[in-house]
Amino acid sequence: MNILVVRNDKLGDFITALPTMYVLKKYNPQNKIIACVAPLNKTLAEAMPFIDEVIVDDVESSFALARKLRQANIDTSITLFSNTKVALAQFLAGIKVRIAPATKIAQIFYNRRIKQRRSEVKMAEFEYNLELSKTLFKDIDLSFPFPLLEVNKDEKSDIYNKFIKSYKIKKDKKIIAFHPGSGGSSDANWTIQEYIELAKVILNNEKYQIIFTFGPGEDNLYEIVKKASLDNVVLYKSEGSIMDFANLVSSFQLFISTSTGTYHLAAMVGTPTMTFFADTLFASSKRWKSISDEKIQINKMIPLEDIKRRTFFEETKADLLSWVQKDQSF
């Protein structure tokens, strides 16, 4: 069976769709899993061993997307997040079975509409995605491995060795990474000055190398940290593909960030995470927890009130210092 799985939005959202594609392939290895993704996620989708074909949604109209879908000879589609364009495109492509959550006007173009009420946050986003696969196969096993992506050991070693050589990092150092940016995808975050303050808490521990990572469009954050003149802190602008960054992050001891795409990427390759979420149900870790083993997740909710936020920040500093002093190992 040729199964189309649609999740054509941001990096983190796409990663929450990967377990669904994994279990569909595991259920029957003869299933051909076709992923419809945003251009940003093309290389990541192509690196997944359980995805057989990638269709990039880089067109503006439903008619143009329908032409792409029609060429794939799709039997069934599961749309994990829908909009009118992708819904109409699947209808126009003649896909016989079209599964999607029963939300928005776009649902009229699907013939198997599933009521999920995701706003109630009874489970995480990736778990809601997995539940949709039961519509197709009632007896499907929804379990998946941790980490979901086993990076190539040789590639991982090569990228990491080039990285530490380039930035003159000693081989015995354990790396703790701070990623202060969010690309606007997070509902709560510390300020760049607060991230600098967090980093200062652990700068004097000789076992660790502190780095700050920055994605595309985060040059202003880079310049602020650079001007702070932190001793022995590496500033790294992400280079290459998403998979290159995934390989690099897989060697880190801890990845500290807000709930954004890079957090989901780090978790996917098995890197321990300390992640900050908004203290609201819809933006909480209950909804956006990662697809990693919960034992390696430190999830923290940033209060909305200023006084509580500052108190919580001081608690976070203490927690981070304690983690480092104990030489924490997951």
Q: What's a concise summary of this model?
A:
This protein has helices at 11-15, 18-27, 42-47, 62-70, 84-92, 125-133, 153-166, 192-202, 219-227, 242-249, 261-268, 285-288, 306-325; strands spanning 2-6, 32-37, 53-56, 76-79, 97-101, 112-114, 174-179, 208-214, 233-237, 254-258, 273-278, 297-302. With 330 residues, it is α/β, with parallel strands linked by helices. The protein has 2 domains: 2-133, 3-Layer(aba) Sandwich (Rossmann fold); 154-325, Rossmann fold (3-Layer(aba) Sandwich).
Helix count equals 13
Coarse structural class: alpha/beta
| N→C terminal distance | 40 Å
CATH architecture call of the largest domain: 3-Layer(aba) Sandwich
Mind telling me the CATH superfamily name of the largest domain? Glycogen Phosphorylase B
Strand adjacency order, main sheet = 3-2-1-4-5-6
Number of domains: 2
Number of strands: 12
Measured by DSSP, the beta-strand proportion falls in 15-25%
The gyration radius over C-alpha positions equals 21 Å
Notes on the protein architecture:
Helices cover 37% and strands 19% of the residues. The protein has 330 residues and is α/β, with parallel strands linked by helices. It folds into 2 domains: 2-133, Glycogen Phosphorylase B (Rossmann fold); 154-325, Rossmann fold (3-Layer(aba) Sandwich). The strands form 2 sheets. A 6-stranded parallel sheet has the order 3-2-1-4-5-6, sandwiched between helices. It has a 6-stranded parallel sheet with strand order 9-8-7-10-11-12, with helices on both faces. Strand 4 (76-79), helix 5 (84-92) and strand 5 (97-101) form a beta-alpha-beta unit. The longest helix is centred in the C-terminal third of the chain and has 20 residues, at 306-325.
